[in-house]
Write a structure and sequence with these properties.
alpha/beta; Rossmann fold; Arc Repressor Mutant, subunit A; 7-stranded parallel β-sheet; 47% helix; globular; disordered N terminus; binds adenosine-5'-diphosphate; binds zinc ion
């Protein structure tokens, strides 16, 4: 059997360029690929869009060509396997999947090809990998020295700490026990230490080398705005910045998903809903539409998104606040995998703070778990209220130091801040006095009315105009006071309780604010109008930003051609060529196959399969 020593890095580089058509490795890819190709275990933490797939695909190809056999890719995403394998076929790599969508004959055919060593990468879900039948197949391959590598994708699914926990992942330790010596590579985009330690322990990866990449996604612009009328704000954001482009809108509840999808669709947008309450066939259909058609907006709960490798998602919008920064980062990371400009946009308001706190309080979990969850929520609230660079805060949450980025809302439009300490003290005293007088606590609306001296029915009903704080906050607008409230709740200086009325209570933390020991700085409540871009619907998007008129015609023709090919092959368009590749072709104005060679994204197989057609399409417009 050939030893791994024969696998040199030039081999790896030539696979990168010949098979995938890429010129250079990104970040730590090369080091990881060398390590894994040499047969060592690894745990790879890389952000979404960082390029994890190549970290196992290239070792798989290198090891197979050295006679070391098959790489098994464990992935939870049955619905995406067809496209993942299709993308490898397009690049000329022999790959297959085994899952419940195949009929028995098809599955048998693949098993036979596996035994003959004809397949380089095999995708399967953990629940299948751990079946006796599959293990017997692996036994046979192992006995023939044809089991090369296990790549365990989305490895955080093994951990209970994330929302993607899959019990079947726990069973994967059998791979290590039953096939000792077969290298294993686990990959995830979840960065926190807790999950990482859990993966190491659960998958027995104690001896694996840990590779942690930078989690920065410089092409994503982070924006967090105050929630006023969420639907109208969303509509304006999409119309102004992302007309005709693909995006994901996250909402918390299924009902809200349906409403927002409907609202967007009524304005003529191609918007579809996705949540766990929909029929599996509807979900699959909507997901396919999102992946295959251009410019679809998916309105979804967090049930949607894991493993979605569509590179040209131009925005991810949050209409409700996620639970923590891990969730926020993972969801927003689905934007701009192609490295081109993309937006992460969120609206957030008082109600989000209240809802998230309540969900934690009312969950049946243990108190120490709740405490942990509250801490994570606080970090996200602090991010939302921040007046300095969002990226610096995000990255520092993942333990990475950085400098103000110039590509987030706070960097681009430094917010005005005001000293809300006085307002905060007045608000807390009002909460205190109202409760003291009436014997029970009140909600935020009523407290603000007292503070602003509004003689409402409720104020007179409870005699609250007699309170010493009545009207002492008349100079503050309601928006300002809402900001103060949010900040106080985020700081833990106010508590929100109750199912229906959400009443406010003082906490231990209130005292320091009341005494004036803690300053409360608030961002001025102004919404920056997004820059109005004059663009037509279905504008060519950021890939084509630098093309001249002639290039643009070629680009549009190439896109139309690509759509036909993708349809014929039943694959998403980006599997054939990325937008960026088409743009490079268009501006190269190629006259021969030689001109196409070396364009990023065109490997040997694609050049052979599509080169002539691409040249023909490029010539059409010259007439
Ligand atoms: P992840 O799985 O980490 O989210 P992917 O493996 O899907 O990311 O890669 C994201 C995108 O980056 C893909 O479209 C992929 O083709 C591209 N990519 C990855 N590595 C490179 C590279 N070295 N050069 C150019 N493009 C790359
Ligand atoms: Zn910034």
């Amino acid at each position: 059997m050939p030893t791994s020593a024969v696998l040199h890095s030039p081999n790896i580089l030539s696979i990168l360029s010949e098979v995938f058509g890429y010129e250079s490795f990104r970040g730590p890819q090369q080091e990881i690929i060398e390590h894994v190709t040499a047969g060592q275990d690894a745990l790879v933490l890389m952000p979404t869009g960082g390029g994890k797939s190549l970290c196992y695909q290239i070792p798989a190809i290198a090891r197979q060509s050295a006679g070391l056999g098959i790489t098994i890719v464990v992935s939870p995403l049955i619905a995406l396997m067809h496209d993942q394998v299709g993308a490898l076929h397009e690049a000329g790599v022999s790959a297959a999947f085994l899952n419940s969508t195949l009929n028995p004959e098809e599955a048998q055919d693949i098993e036979q090809r596996l035994r003959r060593g004809e397949i380089t990468l095999l995708y399967a879900a953990p629940e299948r990998v751990t079946t006796p039948r599959f293990l017997a197949l692996l036994d046979a391959l192992y006995a023939q020295n044809l089991l090369s590598l296990f790549a365990i994708d989305e490895a955080h699914c093994v951990s209970q700490w994330g929302h993607d926990f899959r019990p079947d992942y726990r069973g994967l330790t059998i791979l290590h026990e039953r096939f000792p010596g077969t290298p294993r590579l686990a990959l995830t985009a979840t960065a926190d230490a807790l999950t990482r330690d859990d993966i190491v322990e659960r998958l027995q990866l104690e001896n694996a080398r840990l590779f942690i990449s930078s989690f920065d996604r410089p092409n994503i612009r982070y924006t967090i705005v105050e929630k006023k009328d969420a639907s109208a704000q969303l509509l304006r954001f999409i119309e102004r910045e992302h007309e005709g482009e693909a995006g994901v809108v996250y909402c918390q509840s299924r009902k809200r998903v349906e409403e927002v999808a409907e609202m967007l669709a009524q304005t003529g947008m191609d918007a579809l809903p996705y949540h766990a309450g929909l029929d599996a066939s509807v979900r699959q259909k909507n997901q396919n539409r999102f992946l295959r058609d251009e410019g679809v907006v998916m309105v979804a709960t967090i049930a949607f998104g894991m493993g979605i490798d569509k590179p040209d998602v131009r925005f991810v919008a949050h209409l409700d606040m996620p639970k923590n920064i891990e969730g926020y980062y993972q969801e927003t990371g689905r934007a701009g995998r192609d490295g081109l400009k993309a937006d992460a946009w969120m609206v957030y308001g008082l109600q989000d703070v209240v809802n998230q706190r309540r969900m934690i309080d009312e969950s049946p979990a243990e108190e120490n778990f709740k405490q942990l969850m509250r801490g994570k929520l606080d970090a996200l609230l602090a991010l939302a209220e921040a007046t300095d660079c969002r990226r610096v805060r995000l990255l520092s949450y993942f333990g990475e130091a950085s400098h103000p980025c110039g590509n987030c809302d706070n960097c681009l439009h430094p917010p005005a801040v005001w000293d809300g300490t006085d307002a905060a003290r007045k608000l807390l005293s009002t909460v205190f006095r109202a409760e003291q007088q009436s014997g029970f606590s009140f909600g935020s609306g009523h407290i603000m009315d007292i503070l602003r001296g509004k003689a409402t029915e409720k104020v007179s009903q409870y005699g609250h105009s007699q309170l010493t704080t009545f009207g002492i906050g008349a100079e503050f607008s309601e928006a300002q006071l809402r900001g103060v409230l949010r900040q106080l709740i985020a700081m833990g200086a106010l508590n929100v309780q109750g199912q229906v009325f959400n009443t406010l209570q003082l906490t231990e933390g209130s005292r320091a604010v009341l005494r004036g020991d803690v300053k409360v700085w608030l961002r001025e409540s102004v919404n920056h109008k997004p820059e109005k871009r004059s663009r037509k619907p279905h504008a060519p998007g950021p890939a084509a930003a630098n093309l001249n008129q002639d290039d643009l015609v070629r680009y549009i023709n190439l896109k139309a051609w690509r759509a036909e090919v993708a349809k014929e092959h039943n694959l998403p368009a980006y599997v054939i060529f990325h937008d960026a590749t088409l743009a490079m072709i268009a501006s190269a104005d190629p006259q021969s196959l030689e001109d196409l060679r070396g364009i990023s994204g065109i490997g040997v197989k694609k050049l052979e399969a599509y080169g002539q057609e691409v040249l023909k399409v490029c010539r059409v417009q010259l007439k």
